[in-house]
Amino acid sequence: MTCLAPSSGAITIDFDEESVVERLNNLTGGKGPEKCIDAVGLEAHATATVDSMYDRAKQMLMLETDRPHVLREIFYVCRPAGTVSMPGVYGGLLDKRPFGMFMNKGLTLRTGQTHVNRWTDDLLHREEGQIDPSFVITHEVSLDDGPRMYKTFRDKEDGCVKVVLKP
User: Fold this and answer.
1) Pairs from 119-123 (Cβ < 8 Å, separation ≥ 24)
2) Residue 1 pLDDT more than 70?
């Protein structure tokens, strides 16, 4: 799997390999990050934790629609008076969030899907070469290959991060 984070100076934490909460506490001297972003939302696929198994069981019984594992961990690690941003999409109901902890820490919650209209004009009027997003493109295919590439992207195969479809 291709990971762009290290090339931008970010530290990656694989929840299948280690505890996110412990790692973030170690990295911040126990204070936790000041700002946390849940850009995953209902697509979170944590499977080895008790809370994620609980979410999946409720989902199978149609008693819950989303998997807030990432959001729960953010509430645990974000430092008091920190900010939690959620551009990730949630489709419906969430369960078992430590909301008392959220309130007692005095966290600020910012939500909403990506505000495309806010940024479109600015991005469209940038000079050529001012922004180069090509580093994120891992595949360029014909429009006819779209369904196959969607599956490749969804299943995290072949290092797929971003696909450009060409008509």
Assistant:
1) none
2) no
Same domain, 90 and 155: no
Query: How much is the pLDDT for 42?
Result: 65
Tokens found for residue 17:
């390999």
Mark whether 78 and 140 lie in a shared domain: no
Q: Which residue has the tokens 């290290």?
A: 6
Among 70, 89, 111, the domain boundary falls at 111
Tell me how far apart the terminal alpha carbons of the chain are, to the nearest angstrom: 27
Is residue 63 within 8 A of residue 16, CB to CB? The reply is no
The amino acid at 159: G
Residue-wise pLDDT for 110-166, tens only, equals: 988 777 788 888 888 888 888 888 888 999 999 999 999 999 998 889 989 899 999
Enclosing domain of residue 130 = 116-166
* Of the candidates 31, 73, 76, the residue with the CA atom closest to the CA atom of residue 55: 73
On whether the CB atoms of residues 64 and 28 are closer than 8 A, the answer is no
Residue with tokens 């599956």: 151
* Sequence-ordered list of residues with C-beta below 8 angstroms from that of 48, at least 6 positions apart, any chain: 15, 16
What's the rounded Cα separation, in Å, for the pair 35 and 52? 23
Choose among 96, 90, 87: nearest CA to 51.
96
